[in-house]
Write a structure and sequence with these properties.
By secondary structure, the chain is of the alpha+beta class. Helices cover 60% and strands 12% of the residues. It is built from 3 helices and 3 strands; from the N terminus they run ααβββα. It has helices at residues 17-100, 104-119, 169-172; strands spanning 124-130, 133-143, 153-155.
């Protein structure tokens, strides 16, 4: 019994005290053997449950990772849709403003202010092609600048702009 051999029995010789002691010992050994069997069975069952739990944890981790990836994709899509919506609203507002314009000057101011806002610019000048003279552009609108020093006309395509980026006297019409 000390070595774990619980199937060993002691002979039960008689009904005296030694016999009863032997019977009690044998009953105790059978009870220990039965308890050990139950414990081993429960241990095996717990090991199986632990394996199942580990497998389930792996499945849940994979599902969680997939859910996170989908959430990240949705966030990117939502941001993209929000940007598209904002752009569509800007276009709509631009179209509404254009619809209210009654002359070319108003159209040019609306176009310039909208372009400046889209570019994040505080100032700007808009030159347009003159249908009567396609060799030069005509200043159509000015935003937040004094128009006096600005050229009234510019060569079409800016070909006569100076090397330093400033208009030449010829480009200014002087």
């Amino acid at each position: 019994v000390q070595r774990g051999e619980l199937d060993v029995t002691v002979p039960e010789r008689s009904g005296d005290e030694i016999g009863r002691l032997g019977a009690s010992f044998n009953a105790m050994a059978r009870a220990l053997e039965q308890s050990r069997g139950e414990l081993e069975s429960q241990n095996t069952e717990l090991e199986m449950q632990a394996i199942e739990l580990e497998e389930r944890q792996v499945e849940l981790t994979e599902a969680n990772d997939e859910t996170r990836a989908q959430r990240d994709e949705l966030e990117v899509s939502a941001a993209h849709l929000a940007a598209e919506k904002a752009r569509a609203e800007r276009y709509g507002a631009f179209a509404d403003r254009l619809a209210t314009a009654r002359n070319a000057s108003d159209l040019a101011e609306i176009a310039l202010s909208t372009l400046a806002a889209a570019a994040g610019a505080d100032v700007g000048v808009l030159y347009t092609e003159d249908w009567r003279d396609d060799s030069r552009w005509t200043r159509a609108a000015v935003l937040a600048l004094d128009p006096a020093p600005l050229a009234e006309f510019a060569p079409a395509g800016g070909e006569e702009a100076g090397d330093n980026g400033e208009w030449t006297d010829a480009a200014r019409g002087w």
